[in-house]
Amino acid sequence: MNAMGFERILGGVCAPQGFLAAGVACGIKGDGRPDLALVKSDREATVAGIFTTNALPAAPVTLTSERVRAGSAGAVVVSSGNANAMTGERGMADALAMAGEVESTLGLAEGQALVCSTGPIGVQLPMDKVVAGISQAAGELSPGGNTDAAKAIMTTDTYPKELAVEMEIAGRVVRMGAMAKGAGMIHPNMATMISLITTDMPLDHDTMQQWLCQAGEWSFNRISVDGCQSTNDTVLMMANGAALPQGYTMTNEEAELFFRALCWLTANLAMALVKDGEGATKLLRIVVNGARDDAEAVVIAESIAVSDLVKCSFFGGAPNWGRIAAAAGSAGVPLDPDSLDIYVGEYKLVSGGVPLECDHDDLVRMLARDEAEITVDLGLGSGSAFYLTTDLSTEYVEINAEFS
Predict the structure, then answer these.
(1) Cross-strand bridge partners of residue 283
(2) Whole-structure pTM over 0.85, yes or no?
(3) 8 Å CB contact between 225 and 184
(4) What residues pair up with 94 in beta bridges, in sequence order?
(5) N or C: which end of the chain has fewer CB within 10 A?
(6) At 176, which helix (H) or strand (E)?
């Protein structure tokens, strides 16, 4: 194992023991691309979840969040190309029908199937195609179906996003795998994202829910592509306990290792979502230091991350530090301009609220890279936070002007 105590491996959601997956094209999208994923545990798994805080959640979010509170599940089905959001009573009936079809097809008890959907809002699901897709996916479930599943949940993503790690706990190999999608409508809490994390570690619901919420707060809730929050955002975690005896209790050191691996996995998935942001040409890493506390630092970092003016200037390759300062000042947090420092990459552009001279041509050359870092030091305390976002390109406008 490396210095972190775990190693990256292949296999995505199928890397842990006892998980099978499939991804198929059943016609939801209409262009022949894969659009339905199915992931199954060979035994009942403990589940946890975090969901959008949008006041208009989609039917699958309402159903699945209720089922997660019950604490266990055997399978997850994801339809892509239709959000099943703002679809009224029929939308909830369709979400229940999707779950019921999975349960009857796989021989699961009622309530053991979780449902996610992603895509355009306000369109009824083509349930005949969904039902046929579930049947096809069930027949194609395999321990090598992880990448097919990761492709099937994509919408405007340009590539599938999956990761897996393994570590040693109690002399046994324990694994964790994941897949995620999302490229637009990315903003906490959560983002236009669907993610599923699997593990063969035995975990109780409350512990897993706590760990997932904390890992999500440091990853999925620190990213923004366009400042728009979706109706369908869902992150699920399943633990089937296949690697160790049920009831095994981790030592403090083992728990720390597992949580560290979970945080690494969610952080890297979150970064992949931002890098694949719709029309993005740059990943922007925003760091705020010197805040009165971490909570104020998060608010300021988010304010900078969602500023269209900041994002457009980085797309143009000539950042205007005044836009960064204005975005920080608009966050609703009291600031002292005489203690403000602003850096772009290795260049300090503002010191104590006063602009500094810099080599403009060299700064522009640096910003031709596909990543840039903005650091704002407020000089007020020890609070700090980070945020990941993208630039705002003409391609983003074109994608979303045509999206329907």
Answers:
(1) 371, 390
(2) yes
(3) yes
(4) none
(5) C
(6) strand 172-181
pLDDT tens sequence for the chain (404 residues): 677 899 999 999 999 999 999 999 999 998 999 999 999 999 999 999 999 888 899 999 999 999 999 999 999 999 999 999 999 999 999 999 999 999 999 999 999 999 999 988 999 999 999 999 999 999 999 999 999 999 999 988 889 999 999 999 999 999 999 999 976 544 444 445 799 999 999 999 999 999 999 999 889 888 876 656 778 889 999 999 999 998 899 999 999 999 999 999 999 998 888 888 776 778 899 999 999 999 999 999 999 998 989 988 888 777 789 999 999 999 999 999 999 999 998 889 999 999 998 888 888 888 778 888 999 999 999 999 999 998 877 776 766 676 55
Strands 383-390 and 223-224: parallel
- Concerning whether 198 is annotated as a catalytic residue, the answer is no
Domain ranges of the chain: 6-275, 283-402
The bridge status of strand 6-8 relative to strand 172-181 is unpaired
Q: Domain 283-402 belongs to what topology? A: Ubiquitin-like (UB roll) (3.10.20)
Architecture of the domain whose range is 6-275: 4-Layer Sandwich (3.60)
